Amino acid sequence: MAVPEHPPAAHNITLAVTGASGSLYAAEMLRALASDDRVSRIHFVASESALRVFAEELGLSGRNDLAEKLLGSPCTKLRRHADSDIGASIASGSYPISAMIVLPCSMGTLAAIANGLASNLIHRAADVCLKERRPLVLCVRETPFNRIHLRNMQLAAEAGATIFPAIPTLYNHPQSTTEMAQQFVHRVLAHIGLPQPGAYQWGADERLED
Ligand SMILES: Cc1cc2nc3c(=O)[nH]c(=O)nc-3n(C[C@H](O)[C@H](O)[C@H](O)COP(=O)(O)O)c2cc1C
């Protein structure tokens, strides 16, 4: 049997959840990462405000077992970190993270990342991604944007982050908010090199007819 020269890379992903609206997106992202065999580790960090928004939007409370509650079962590849733990693995550039996703990303967290504050684990881990030139996806959510938000998005993009607004698509005719969130999550994962089976692709029919 032929042995592949290079085994497929194991993806080591940080998922940071902050206090913007959109807990459902975070829940769907966590589920997608947990069920993706290419992902070997999920580093999960939630800000204080994220916990508040989870309680508001999904009726979920708790800090330590939030990720397990979202998944509905234990997940061996999950590593939970407190937002205050600036000594966690992902706070160092020597720890090999493949990509970091902030979903949803509040304007407060965007501001901290764009201006290099690095004062909690989410800000620091994002700062590390930027300095190590690793993919950092900021799924910002606010409406309308003020000029400070717009400037901070530009700053973060110039430093190497992808601004990936948490805006759902309608052209795929989602039948539920879950389906809407899943399609958004699929787009984010495709962006970091993890295309998902079953993801909606505009023009897929066209290719079949070719
Ligand atoms: C229910 C709820 C929804 C919120 N939605 C947003 C939002 O969509 N975007 C945003 O930037 N902030 C939003 N906020 C405010 C943030 O949670 C707040 O600015 C917080 O300080 C952000 O902290 P963090 O970035 O550390 O998570 C919301 C707050 C609550 C309670």
TrEMBL record:
Query: EC number(s) per UniProt?
Result: 2.5.1.129
**UniProt keyword annotation of Flavoprotein present:** yes
Q: What is the uppermost EC class here? A: transferase
The domain of life is: Bacteria
Residue sites binding FMN per the record: G19, A20, S21, S47, S106, M107, G108, T109, R141
Keywords on this record?
Answer: Flavoprotein, FMN, Prenyltransferase, Transferase
What are the Flavoprotein domain coordinates in residue numbering?
Answer: 12-190
Q: Catalytic activity annotated for this protein?
A: dimethylallyl phosphate + FMNH2 = prenylated FMNH2 + phosphate
InterPro entries, per the entry: Flavin_trans-like, Flavoprotein, UbiX-like
The protein's GO terms of the molecular function aspect are: flavin prenyltransferase activity
Residues engaged in binding dimethylallyl phosphate:
Y171, R187
* Keyword Transferase included in the entry's annotation: yes
| Biological role stated in the UniProt entry | Flavin prenyltransferase that catalyzes the synthesis of the prenylated FMN cofactor (prenyl-FMN) for 4-hydroxy-3-polyprenylbenzoic acid decarboxylase UbiD. The prenyltransferase is metal-independent and links a dimethylallyl moiety from dimethylallyl monophosphate (DMAP) to the flavin N5 and C6 atoms of FMN.
* NCBIfam families per the UniProt record, alphabetical: PRK06029.1 (NF004685), ubiX_pad (TIGR00421)
Family the entry assigns: Belongs to the UbiX/PAD1 family.
What is this protein's record name?
Flavin prenyltransferase UbiX
Species name: Edaphobacter modestus
List the gene name. Answer: ubiX
